[in-house]
Amino acid sequence: MKIGLIADIHGNLPALKVILDKFEREECDSIYCLGDTIAIGPSSKECIDLLLTLPNINFIMGNHEEYFVKGVSSITSESMSEGEKQHQIWIAKSLNNEIRERLSKFPYLIEENIKGTNVAFMHYALNNREDTKTFKPIEKNVTKESMNTLFKEIASDLIFFGHEHNASNIIGEKHYINIGSSGCTKDDITHCTIVKFKDKSYDIKVHSMKYDKEDVLRELYKREVPEKESISKYFFNV
C-alpha cells in the first residue's frame, strides 16, 4: 500500500501539478491532502478543482478551508489585519457555492489502520472545546515533549499533519510527522511525502522537485491578489 501526502499547497498550481505527476509515476494507491489547498497563492480555484477530479483522494479540513466554508466574518480574530481580511474575501469571491458545499464535508481528522499501523491524518492538533479556535496554537518549539502534549488526544501511532510550513519528524510517544508546505516555498523546489506500508511497518520518503515559481509570482500580480507584496516576501522569499 503506497500513499501520497501533500499539505498547504496554498493556491500554487505549478507545484501541485508537479506533485501529482510524481504520485502518478510512483503509482500511489491513494492521496491524502492535509488541508489549506486554498489561499495565499493565486490559483485556489484551479487547485481545488483539479484535486476534486481525482478518484483516489482523501481531503482534510484546514484553517483556510474553514475560513471559506464558515465565512470570514464569523471566525476572523482581532489579530487578523485588514489586508488579511481583504485577502480572504478575495479568495471567497474566486471560488463558488458548489465548492463551498464540497469543502464543508471535509473532515478534520481521518484515522485508519493501514497494513497493521494505526495512522492519523489531520491539518493540525485540534481543540476539543467549542469556545476556542478549532486548531490549537502552532507549537514553535518542536520537541518530543511538546509533540506528546500537542497530540495527546490522538490514539494513532503515526500522525501526519501540516499547518506549520516547516517540516519536522519527531518520535516520542507516537511518531509525529509534519510534512511541511508544498506550496509556500522559499526557492523553486516543492516537495511531497510518499509512504509505503507493509505488514505493521512503513517507509517514509520525501521527494523534492523543481517547479515554475516565477509563474506563481506573475499570477499573483496579474490577478491583483490582495497582499501580493507581503505574500511574495514572506512566503516566497522575494
Tag the structure with descriptive keywords.
238 residues, alpha/beta, Purple Acid Phosphatase, chain A, domain 2, five-stranded mixed sheet, globular
Question: Would you kindly provide a brief summary of this structure?
Answer:
The chain is an alpha/beta fold and 238 residues long.
CATH fold assignment:
Purple Acid Phosphatase, chain A, domain 2
Distance between the termini: 39 Å
Q: CATH H level: which superfamily?
A: Metallo-dependent phosphatases
CATH architecture: 4-Layer Sandwich
- Low-confidence stretches at least 5 residues in length (pLDDT < 50)? none
Number of domains: 1
CATH class: Alpha Beta
Largest sheet: 5 strands, mixed
Order of helices and strands: EHEHEHHHHEEHEEEEEHH
- Shape field: globular
Give the overall pLDDT as a whole number: 95
What oligomeric assembly is this protein in?
A: single chain
How large a portion of the residues is in β-strands, by DSSP E? 15-25%
Number of helices: 9
Cα-atom radius of gyration: 17 Å
Question: Helicity level, as a percent range?
Answer: 25-40%
Sequence of strands across the biggest β-sheet = 3-2-1-9-10
How many strand elements?
10
Class inferred from helices and paired strands: alpha/beta
Pfam families: Metallophos_2 (PF12850)
Organism: Clostridium tagluense
Protein name: Metallophosphatase family protein
Domain Calcineurin-like phosphoesterase: 1-198
